[in-house]
Design a protein that fits this description.
Distance between the termini: 12 Å
Number of helices: 12
Largest sheet: none
Shape: globular
Strand content: under 5%
Structural class: mainly alpha
Radius of gyration: 20 Å
CATH topology: Amino acid/polyamine transporter I
Amino acid sequence: MQGIREEGFIHARQAAILMWFNVLPTAIIFLPSFLARRAQQDAWIAVIMAILLTLPLGFILTWLGTRFPHLTLFQYSEIILGKALGKIISLFYLLALIQLNALVLREFSEFLVSAVMPETPLLVFTVTLVAVAVYGARNGIEVISRSAEFVMPLMVLFILTILFLVTPEMSLRNLFPLLERGVRPVLAGAVVVLGFTGEISLLAGISGFINPPQGIRMSVILGLAGVFFFLVLVVLGGILVFGSAETARLTFVVFSLARMVSIANFLERIEVLFMAIWVAGVFIKVMLNLYITSLGLATVMRLTDFRPLCAPLAALMVALSVLLFKNISHLLFYLEEIIPIWAFLWAFGIPVFLAVVAAFRKTKGGRNDVP
């Protein structure tokens, strides 16, 4: 690819897995509680509605990826908008990614401090994760995708195992009455979910590495299907076991489900295993976001190598993760109230804007068309 030193390619299946990791690890921890507060027992309907509202974004990402094969958003934005405006849009997108990774780092450290090790400083967890993520990001997209392929079966198996083992505690009565307060609370819940599902737009940052380029369609379909299935499953599990009122009160619903597992006083404390696998999932997400940010900045600056940017950008993300949020209450408020609005601006707004302009100007391009 012109302007960057990254020759790796990934299959459509691998891109779908990366999409899955970019949404699920943080969403399954925080969303059930947010949704139960807004939509109560209809929280799972809010997830379905949000996925349907995310589908147009998936179609737009597919259209852009196939119209500009072998190019990332940071490259085809300059083809569509011109060099100056294209760089401005790319830089805005990069600022959003930096803020997103800072948010994920704070989510990660707050969870470990609140749920497991309350006496440990936040920075211990944050710096440790970032140090490994820098090493992984510097190795490129193929290493990241292979790591994701290894971790995903473990995460899937463990989520399904937890939900299966707490089945005796589930009660269908917790799902009724359906739509007791009408559709408005469900819509309010769906808006919160969009703040998380909108992160599939990061596919535009790696679309140029999907081989063949037409595979981006399958990536979007498989990625959204996986996100939909597991989000609905986790939210349903929380409501069925705890009821909407208790789910709304809990901060980490899936972790609470894992702590409930106890079989014959033998199979217990599996929340420790859940924590280990969840940490691996967050690591994939942080590593992928750091890679896209470094690659995008190198592309905008016309550098031949993105690797020297990984460590400085990671340090900036760590600093922002500490400075942007006062405490966990501030973090939760930001996730529930601010992120949905912010996601519409960058995760939905930028791809839609680029697609509209490209369609209006009838712009197409390939790897040889980068200005």
